[in-house]
Design a protein that fits this description.
The chain is α/β, with parallel strands linked by helices. It is 29% helix and 20% strand.
Amino acid sequence: MIKLFRTETYSTIFDTETGFEVIQGINGHPDPFRLDFPCMIDCGIMGHCHNECYFCYQGDKNETNMELGDYKRIINEGKPFVNQIALGGRGDPNKHKNFKEIVEYSVKNIVVPNYTTSGRLLTKDEVEISKQCGAVAVSDYRQTYTYMALEALMDAGIKTNIHFLFSSSSFIRVLQILKGEDVWRGMVDVDRLNAVIFLLFKPQGRAKNLGHWQVEDRMVSHFIKLARKGLCKFKVGMDSCLVNRVNKVSRLTEEEKLYLDSCESGRMSVYITPNMKLVPCSFADSNIHGLPLDKSNIKTCWESGEPFQKVREKLSKNPTTCPYGL
């Protein structure tokens, strides 16, 4: 199904089956710097996590999970404009008590749900529900449950990705993956794997004392040189934070600019916390930059909220900067 949103100055076209999306200026206008409403919402449905990863950027907060009614409100407000919703927060979204209802309500309203999980204790029912998602990513924790989850999801015919944290600590392994080496030693069926998405490490949350894990420019330079060679059997992707770093050390080609974007925070995407605060980015401190939705709606906060105006001002001056200095 093709989902179309159009204003006088731009249009968004989204294929709900493939995830292909085009955002372009129309009627003589350039491609938009920001949208009237985010086309992608990063939704923190989980308020706490039992995995206790020492490098988690979400930190040690232990809050209640998002209520189903709040989630439905987000979908109701966003469904004309939002193409995809990334289910996340502090923990595995598939462990939310209303996981089934959340996924089904999204699909019913033509908003494609995606989520990332550790894969720990993934059940058959959760896999079955996940068939309605656009894609599922499993974080590569190099644990048995990681590979069991990948296999179960791929067996079910679900578009399955690996999320791989790119840090100085993982640099050698990153290069091996990009060279096409089987770092998983046969535990991952790379012929069925959709993609490996590299996420740039940020020293935040529990990882705030891991400054030595930060990626150096020379590492990013090696990364993009190998990524461009296409030596893997699967697709390779990166988060916007890593795109920013790549653009600093090796300017994107005209072709790459068509499908890679720098920081989308407060321009194309937004984060909503489990306790319903609208934040430009999930890496921003919600206590400082978050706007409570119990006092307003998403569109008003998005259009005129001070945190969003500040982010856009910074990004308009330097599109490849991180508004939060990460």
